Amino acid sequence: MKILLAEDDDVFRLLLGTLLFEDGYDVVAAPDGMKAWERLDGEGADLCVFDVDMPGMTGIDLLKRLRNDDRFSGLPVIMLTVKALVEDQLAGYKAGADEYIPKPVDADILLARIEALTRKTGKRKG
Ligand SMILES: [Mg+2]
After folding, report:
1. Which domains does the chain have, with CATH numbers?
2. What is the Å distance from ligand 1's center to 80 Cα?
3. What is the Å distance from ligand 1's center to 63 Cα?
4. pTM surpassing 0.85?
């Protein structure tokens, strides 16, 4: 099962990518929204984890673009961001997020939420 990770912070992208990989997922990591879109457009994914604040295309813009594409309208998307205000979270859900998780997040909680989302889609690790 492939997770597309979009995160502009190099350290956090590496940490998060390693966490997901060690938990048994295939990980495709992109440093901004446009590169994430190119990867998704080209090879697809089974679940996405997007930061919000990124240079160029933000995580919200990326999410909207994906939701407007029939191929990805039902793809599970988790927003993972320091933008934690109520209006930020509501904007995320309105744009089509399945989960909106403020940073910092406990690693086990993030993995549990990914598992909960993938239970619905029937996708498995590996
Ligand atoms: Mg960021």
Report:
1. 2-120 (3.40.50.2300)
2. 9
3. 15
4. yes
